[in-house]
Amino acid sequence: MDLDSLKNILPASALLLEEEKLRDLAVDGVAPQAAAFPGTVEEAAKVVALAHDQGWGVAIRGRGTKTGLGNPPARVDLVLGLERLNRIIDLDPANLTATVQAGVPLADLQDLVSGVENRCFFPLDGELKEKADALCSDREHKGAFVPLDPPFKSRATMGGILATGSVGPSRLGHGLPRDLVLGTRLIRADGAVIGMGGKTVKNVSGYDVSKLMIGSLGSLGVICEATLRLLPLPRLSCGVVLVFGELGQALGCCAEILNSKLIPTCLELMNRAGAQVGARAALAGPANGWWMALKLDGSEAEVGRQVSDLQAMGKRHEALSTTVQDADQAARMWNRLSEPEARTVFKGHFPFGAYARLASAWSGLSQKAGLECGLSVRAGCGTATAFLATGTPQEQASLGLAMRNAAQDLGGGMVVEAAGPELKQRLDVWGPLPSGFRVMQNLKNSLDPKNILNPGRFLGGL
Amino acid sequence: MNREELAAELALIVGQENVLTSEVDRTLYGYDAFLETALPDAVVIPGSTKEVSQVAALAAARGIPVTGRGSATSLSGGPVPIKGGIVVHFSRMNRILDIDVENRAAVVEPGVITLDLQTAVAQKGLQYAPDPASQKVSTLGGNVGENAGGPHCLKYGVTTNHILGLEAVLADGSVIRTGGQGENASFDQPGLDLTGLLVGSEGTLGLITKIYLRLIPQPEAIKTMLAIYDSIPDASNTVSAIIAEGIVPATLEMMDNLVMRAVEAKAPAGYPLDADAVLIIELDGLADGMEETAQKIMDICRAHNVREVKAAADAAQRAALWAGRKGAFGAVSRLRPNYMVCDGTVPRTMLPRVLDQVTEIGRKYNLEIGNVFHAGDGNLHPLILFDARDKEETGRVMAAASEILRACADAGGTISGEHGIGLEKLKEMEFIFSPQDMAFMGDIKKALDPQGIVNPGKVLPG
After folding, report:
1. pLDDT(A347) > 90
2. Can you tell me the distance from the alpha carbon of B125 to that of B116, in angstroms, rounded to the nearest whole number?
3. Do A200 and B220 make contact, defined as CB atoms within 8 angstroms?
């Protein structure tokens, strides 16, 4: 590997060449020969262009919270670390958009936008420029938020969240990254910087390239900047946790909620090990119990109505307890739930109405396997996650395969969201190839013909 | 291959009665709501995916352009067969294949009229949210092609946020499924987001033959308000102030005096004839707290010098307000022989400034311009009235339209919010995209359509 050419385009402080430190950046045990941490998009583009010339395999990295996702790499010559691309390009609270570089941690952006008090705007830009002429909101609950709450949200960077399409429980209320990104800038495989989309909510000017980039695991380009939708902070937030002695009761209550007019922001159904992740101390409650956690946002009247309806529903379905959390208690619980310690994570998806069958099937399978397995079913979104804390790679692989089969039988599928290399040798990360795979290959060949971007890691080795 | 031979080969696929070749027929299938028209060599009306696939394979083998067509309500020339070839008209593929209440999904053929699906799902207590004003006539295939919007997209998102999967016939005649397999489709299917790429690609990447849509519950309560203003800036400042207050209504629509007069002359909806602008503001969601939010909105209207603000008393009044808004384009078409709609979109707070510029541009080119648009999304629809038989006037219209789009782009917006680029805005693409950006999109097009025969000449210039 020609390291001199790399040294020519980046200062020494932006390069990591020591073997020992590079081992920490290994992807599935494959350590790179160098790591570059560009400080600007232009520098990053130069690095990609050089890698393209040299045919280096490039592993793209933010803060490493998603390194466990994907097939073992075909090759890793260079790690491209984006954590220094951490500038906020534009914060427009009046229009509820933020444009940030890929290395900005979501948590930093959340802190920033939650405190933006300047929701003033000039009614006729260009004519009235005096502060006194600005229109200002006098609402008490100022501030905005990025409506994303993916796993590891305390550390994850925006680039990583978007490249992996990472989502959390609030997708029930706010949608997916694909719904919330208005525009992206990316570095294509030859180093050219491409801008797509913009900062308007509606946009059908040209192809929706942002959609193609989100969830593509960096296989088509390096996301270096994104414009996101913000939402105004709700007037009131609170949580409700219901504990049930049996899965059947929890599912009955869940069905009643989903068929009601209630509009919770989050709804997660968890077995004991799943719920334990969100608790500070050891959970009280039955060994085979199920926990249902909801988050509610809105005005006092909206939240109050939902809390009282949920309490009544809990009673009808024989909930052992119903706890109402204030905003801080709820936030702490959801924060803990987003930081599971398990190194093996499976994510299943299934048709909306199949959550009860999926929950029963996965619960039965994990009990039969005898492994400590946290389950979290996002019933209103058609997804479920399994967190495995124990078991050999063989045991985990056979449970994973059974869970995948169960999800497929219901019309869905399963992805290994995080795992070590031993498990990946035994259990395919992405599952069967989809019908449009040939088109995906054509896109990859057209946009990254030398196959330098995260080679081998995406579905089907893309 | 001459036209007779082509028609004969097509007849072998779809039957003689489903191939149209007379000059009258070819003329009838060669235009949409944009100005340019063209003559296809033949029109086919296939009855199944298999037939579409065979038609596409024939077109590929002969190198003949093939262009899909629904009801042709499009405003930017999308279905106009500018390079001749085969027009594939989807009027026979108009079946609702499944409304799956349990899984909150529907499967339709592309020729289904948008409102027909909405009526059918409403009877089952669900809704399909995107509601383009042309929903009585437009097809879902066309909505997917253009990523159609509509008033309620302010809260619920545009078409792409509601499409779970597609079946598409590609340029070589092969059939792919995106978003899953069998009867099921999901946003969580791993792999590149081909659904997201195809939606809004204006029929240039393939022919959509089946659509898997997401259905959502109907809201518990709806409240519709009409706010009447003596000045357009007051109305647009109200829009920004409502959003600044942290309220996201279901719709925030604006209409100016010219449009209101046109609507009232055609089918009275109860709009004032002497006001400068009205806003139609609709709230939906839980009944609890809605009255309070409505009061807050009315207070904001008053703070911005509203003349009068009133709530629709019943469903009939609400329907009348919406009938007027949705019939606005049609009503305006009675004033002059033609109108040209611009579809520029700007960050919401830029609305007052850009509306001023639109008025100025109208004055400069001596053209009458009406405004009816999705104010909450910043999506303008200036309607320029003219007579296409007057070539000189038409020239001024084209220049004014381009200047309006330039003003939108300069304000940080884009040149199309929901109508697409089509033929209309090819030369304006450079307002927002660099040559490298367009090359990137060109590479995407090549990956799916290497011969460049699927709806050629649209979206990408050159």
Report:
1. yes
2. 15
3. no
DSSP B244: H
Given a cut of 80, whether residue B399 has pLDDT beyond it is yes
Q: How far is CA A70 from CA A164, A187, A434, A457, B192, in A?
A: 10, 21, 16, 5, 13
Q: How far is B313 from chain A (nearest CA, A)?
A: 23
Residues of B within 8 A of A92 (CB-CB) are 347, 349
**Per-residue pLDDT reduced to its tens digit, A33-45:** 999 999 999 999 9
Name B47's Cβ contacts closer than 8 Å, sequence gap at least 6. B14, B18, B92, B93
Query: Tokens at residue B274, please?
Result: 């002497």
Check residue A115 and give its pLDDT. 80
Query: CB of A121 within 8 Å of any CB in chain B?
Result: yes
Residue A138: pLDDT band with limits 50, 70, 90: low
A437 contact residues in B (CB cutoff 8 A): 191
Query: Does the pLDDT value for residue A391 go beyond 90?
Result: yes
d(CA A164, CA A153): 13
User: Which chain B residue has its CA at the smallest distance from A172's CA?
Assistant: B216
Q: Nearest CA of chain B to the CA of A407: how many Å?
A: 12
Query: Could you tell me the pTM of the whole model?
Result: 0.96
CA angle in degrees (0–180, nearest 5) for A78-A84-A87: 140
Answer yes or no: are the C-beta atoms of B413 and A198 closer than 8 Å: yes
Shortest Cα–Cα distance, B421 to chain A (Å): 6
Task: HSE, CB side, 13 Å, CA atoms: give it for residue A333.
Answer: 25
A123 confidence band (pLDDT: 50, 70, 90):
very low
Tokens 């106009």 sit at which residue? B80
Separation of CA B316 from chain center:
26
A126 shares contact with chain B (CB less than 8 Å): yes
Predicted confidence at residue A93, as pLDDT, reads 84
List of chain B residues whose C-beta atoms are within 8 Å of the C-beta of residue A176: 187
